[in-house]
Design brief:
heterodimer; A: alpha/beta; 4 domains; three-stranded antiparallel sheet; 28 helices; about 60% helix; elongated; B: alpha/beta; Rossmann fold; 11 helices; about 45% helix; about 10% strand
């Protein structure tokens, strides 16, 4: 039995220890003399021996002792014996109780484990997919939500005398949650006094609003990893610097997006951190700071995986810290050798040095690098020409700014955007602030059309990272854009700081990528498809009226574009669709009554059937103009989609449906004409040169 | 080219009257004196000559002079790409030495500057010798590619390619091979190549540029020279080269570019017409008296044809190049950008 307790989860062991404690203390109060670890028989023998020894000693020393005294002594001894016996009984009782509790616990734990396993099995069988090895969005989302709850809740988790008190997780005392999940806190609320339980109830109110049921569910299914993750988080929350907390929050909510802005924000946050840092007594700055830093980073990556630029910065920073004292001393020796003044630099000086270095790093590797890139790349922004770009890139923004304001060039910019982040909107806004008048905003879906009809001089792309085999890792959609450009013989130019170069080699986008929340792809589209149309520009242009609309979209700007959709076509479309939906619903009901089997088959057949059975309205449609007919057909498919929407919104329970919202994709080197870095322009094949010689 | 400014002390300002030498004149003079001289080397020579004339006393002045004459050269000489490569190399060489002097001695000592200047003046010939030597090296490396019985296609006139073929024929175990020469309109260097090869008993035939595709499937290798090798590893050469490259790629025939390392140029053209050119075929004359064409008859010569708007150079992308034969060894196109970066950053 004792062996089995050892193999149990640490939480139950911890509990056992706690319950032992009072027992041990009571034992000590009554008889402090017997050494611990003796069995009952041994104890008795030891007592007898003790008595004999005492008697002998008394006889030898105090021969003049009265009988009464002896009797008293005997009575005392008897009492002692009785007390000991009582104690033993008590101990045994406790032991039995404990065993019972243990057994119960084990049984429960086993049950829960089995259940969890079953569920996991079910889940895994349900959602086995191509990208199963990536950290799922669900996992991240749940940890994120827990994270934000930890950040936002006023009452932080604390390590108390009873163990780890987890206010944010106190709802776990709910019976549906297994005991393996931080059972310490659960037990506390169950067994301890009223005060605590009321406390936890109080928390419960707070937290039920913060932690949605999805997290709860995740905790059921991914018990161990997640709970331990959360525990780690909550233990470390107190030592996380506020600016890092803030940064994590803005990463997680996509307030700060893009490799470069994220890296800049990180540098700034770390500056605050270093400034506020005081070395605990007994340690050295560079050692303790590194440790402290890794806690921060562990916390930070819970929001989103580190970008390559951030990774490179952190690597540099840690290296810099590790040599901090050493180089400082050397400098001191050099500079002060003449004065024979060898003093160690104070902590403040070291910190100042560190912050200064961070500032230089920021300038050198990002800001100045960007300027150099801009100077090189500006030759590709043709006066009177047209460039196309994708999403948001800070370097490209600087480039366009330079070309417009410094070089006074006039050119057209096409900003291609995509769901769900819509970074391009921000880009367009920023560009318009600079006074760009010739901006076209469109979605990636219309890219083929744009390339077909407009004369574009070059494609300019930013980068998330560039891999050593020349692949470009950038926001998902860039690859499609570059491929289309290549097809149309338009050069693709990538502007990228050397900071974003990585030694990694990757041949496809799935091996390593970031999965975003699948719900991002769904939520909005359901409730208000109208707003999507407003936002999306010509995204569904081909679904609408082809000939009419897209001819117009040639020269319209963003605002005009919106209005156009809003006023004429969209309203028409929506009303048409609604009408059509109704009509089709009626038809479908009839059809369902007629034969259900036919209905289950593919959409084409359905259409055929409907036209066959109910030719009245269909013929009317076909009598109208040809493109109208097209739009009708697309309307049909659209309406069908909206019917299926029910199953899409319910995708988490639908075993056959996976939603794939990926963040980055890879563009093969053959699609890239040129990469511009601060070290000059190079073909994608020469990326290893930069990696080998210039990034140290 | 007789009088040289001898005033060394006192005023460092060189007045405009001393500017006897036009860098362009010098450059053309050097080229005409030595037919074996390549354009980048001639450019370097003329730059040194100009420095000698001006005899600058400070490094800043030296750099100013060099910059000015480079500008003058590149603006006044048509087809300035390989010339630019030479100027780049020289400029970089000077800058590197001046800055390294600065860093070593903490201050610009006049002695180090003077010694560097003298070194530069004295070793002007060194550049020329080296460049000629490099052509031999290239011939040695490149002739490995030629096998007995090969049919080789070359385009226009290139000293390095001819040197390579001669080396293979005469020195390198006396290989037996045949050469097809495309004439290389509009400069028609092919005729000169034919003469040089036939003088050395190499089987060779001249074909028109338009005939290349009709015989290319029988060709084993293609060798072309280069005006410049760009950062991307592509090459800038006589018009028509890129066409041959594409055709050779399509037929899986190895396409070698032969170029000295001083022809590596810091340019990055993206498209075949992405080069500075005097005549842009995309510049259309719509109407007016100029646009009328007089028919000159069957005998009209093409060289002086005033209606011709062909650019003289084109750019071959690295995708079409199998290897680049340089005096530094056989390089893949992607290795060129490494070489260039090493030149500029180390």
């Amino acid at each position: 039995m004792s062996e089995s307790t050892n193999t149990e989860t640490p939480s139950t062991v911890q509990e056992e220890i706690k319950e032992k404690e009072p027992v041990v203390s009571s034992n000590n109060e009554i008889s402090s003399e017997p050494p611990a670890g003796l069995s009952n028989k041994e104890l008795k023998e030891w007592k007898k021996k003790e008595k004999a020894a005492k008697r002998l000693a008394k006889k030898a020393q105090q021969s003049g002792q009265t009988v009464q005294e002896k009797e008293n002594e005997a009575i005392l001894l008897k009492e002692k014996k009785q007390q000991q016996k009582l104690l033993q009984i008590q101990q045994e009782k406790i032991r039995v109780q404990k065993q019972k509790i243990k057994q119960e616990q084990e049984a429960i734990a086993k049950k829960k484990k089995l259940e969890a396993q079953k569920e996991r099995m079910l889940n895994s069988s349900q959602k086995s997919n191509l990208f199963g090895h990536l950290e799922t969005a669900q996992e991240r989302k749940s940890s994120l939500l827990a994270l934000s709850s930890v950040i936002t809740s006023s009452k932080f988790g604390k390590i108390t005398a009873q163990g780890l008190a987890l206010p944010s997780l106190s709802y776990l005392s709910d019976k549906s949650i297994s005991h393996t999940v931080s059972s310490s806190s659960g037990k506390i609320t169950e067994h301890s006094d009223l005060n605590e339980s009321t406390n936890s109830a109080d928390y419960l109110v707070n937290l039920s609003t913060i932690l949605p049921s999805s997290v709860k569910k995740d905790l059921d299914t991914h018990t161990n990893e997640l709970s331990s993750q959360l525990k780690d988080l909550i233990i470390t929350i107190d030592i996380i610097h506020p600016s890092v907390l803030k940064l994590t929050d803005s990463y997680a909510s996509y307030k700060i997006v893009g490799s470069t802005p994220r890296c800049l924000a990180l540098i700034d946050a770390f500056k605050d951190l270093v400034l506020d840092y005081t070395t605990p007594p007994g340690t050295v700055l560079n050692r303790s700071l590194t440790q402290y830093l890794s806690h921060q980073i562990d916390f930070l990556i819970k929001s989103r995986p580190l970008s390559v630029s951030m990774g490179n910065f952190i690597r540099w920073f840690k290296q810099r810290i590790s040599v901090l004292g050493i180089t400082g001393d050397k400098d001191n020796e050099k500079s002060n050798s003449s004065k024979n003044l060898k003093r160690k630099k104070t902590e403040d000086e070291l910190k100042e040095e560190l912050i200064e270095d961070m500032e230089t790093f920021k300038n050198e590797k990002i800001l100045v690098a960007q300027q150099v890139i801009v100077n090189t790349a500006s030759q590709h922004v043709p006066d009177g020409g047209c460039v196309i770009t994708y999403g948001y890139s800070q370097v490209l923004f600087e480039l366009f700014k330079h070309a417009k304001l410094t070089e006074k060039k006039n050119f057209k910019i096409i900003v291609i955007d995509s769901r769900p982040l819509f970074e391009g909107k921000r880009f367009v806004e920023d560009l318009q602030e600079l006074g760009f008048t010739d901006v076209i905003y469109s979605l990636i879906t219309s890219v083929a059309y744009i390339f077909d009809t407009m004369s574009i001089d070059c494609v300019l792309l930013g980068a998330h990272s560039i891999l050593s085999n020349g692949f470009l890792n950038s926001r998902v959609g860039s690859a499609s854009l570059s491929m289309t450009a290549k097809y149309h013989n338009i050069p693709v130019i990538v502007c990228c700081e050397a900071l974003k170069f990585t030694n990694r080699v990757q041949l496809d986008s799935l091996t390593f990528n970031e999965l975003a929340d699948p719900n991002d792809l769904i939520d909005k589209s359901e409730e208000d498809s109208v707003s999507i149309f407003n936002n999306a520009g010509s995204s569904d242009g081909h679904v609408l009226d082809d000939s009419n609309l897209i001819n117009n979209s040639n020269d319209i700007q963003v605002g005009v574009c919106k209005n156009l959709y809003k006023n004429n076509l969209l309203e028409q479309f929506v009303s048409e669709r609604e009408y059509h939906l109704k009509e089709q619903q009626l038809k479908k009901d009839e059809l369902n009554q007629l034969n259900e089997k036919e209905n289950a088959k593919g959409s084409n057949q359905q259409n055929n059937n409907m036209s066959g059975n109910n030719s009245g309205s269909q013929q009317q449609n076909s009598n109208t103009s040809s493109h109208n007919g097209n739009s009708q057909a697309s309307l049909k498919s659209k309406s069908k989609k909206s019917k299926k929407n029910k199953s899409i919104s319910n995708w988490e329970n639908n075993a056959s449906l996976n939603i794939f919202n990926i963040m980055y994709d890879l563009t093969p080197p053959s699609y890239i004409s040129k990469i511009i870095t601060e070290y000059g322009a190079l073909p994608p094949q020469s990326v290893p040169v930069i990696l080998r010689d210039y990034i140290k | 080219m007789s009088e040289v400014n001898t005033s060394t002390n006192g005023d460092s300002l060189s007045s405009s009257s001393e500017q006897k030498y036009n860098s362009k004149q010098l450059y053309l003079q050097f080229l005409s004196q030595d037919p074996d001289l390549t354009m980048p080397i001639a450019a370097i020579e003329s730059l040194i000559q100009i420095l000698k004339t001006h005899n600058p006393t400070t490094s800043a002045e030296m750099i100013n002079i060099i910059n000015g004459s480079i500008k003058e050269l590149t603006e006044n000489i048509p087809n300035s790409i390989s010339l630019r490569a030479g100027c780049d190399i020289f400029y970089r060489f000077v800058i590197k030495h001046l800055t390294s002097n600065d860093s070593n001695n903490k201050s610009i000592s006049t002695t180090s500057f003077e010694s560097f200047k003298n070194h530069l003046f004295d070793n002007g010939q060194l550049f020329i010798d080296r460049s000629k030597l490099s052509r031999f090296k290239i011939a040695e490396y490149g002739s490995q590619f030629i096998k007995d019985g090969d049919i080789i296609l070359i385009h226009g006139y290139s000293r390095s390619v001819i040197q390579l073929l001669l080396h293979a024929k005469l020195k390198d175990s006396k290989k037996r091979f045949k050469v097809l020469i495309s004439e290389g309109r509009p400069t028609n260097g092919g005729i000169l190549t034919l003469k040089k090869l036939r003088d050395n008993d190499i089987y060779s035939n001249l074909i028109t540029d338009t005939a290349i595709n009709s015989i290319l499937h029988k060709v084993d290798k293609v060798f072309v020279g280069a005006e410049g090798v760009t950062e991307s590893g592509g090459c800038i050469n006589l018009i028509g080269t890129s066409t041959i490259g594409i055709l050779a790629k399509e037929k899986h025939i190895p396409f070698y570019v032969v170029a000295e390392s001083h022809k590596f140029v810091r340019m990055f053209p993206l498209m075949p017409n992405d080069l500075p050119m005097e005549q842009d075929p995309l510049n259309f004359i719509s109407s007016g008296a100029d646009s009328k064409v007089e028919f000159l008859g069957e005998e009209a010569t093409f060289l002086e044809n005033k209606y011709l708007t062909t650019p003289l150079l084109d750019f071959t992308k690295y995708e079409y190049i199998t290897a680049i034969v340089t005096d530094l060894g056989i390089k893949t196109p992607s290795a060129i950008s490494e070489e260039l970066m090493n030149m500029w950053y180390d």
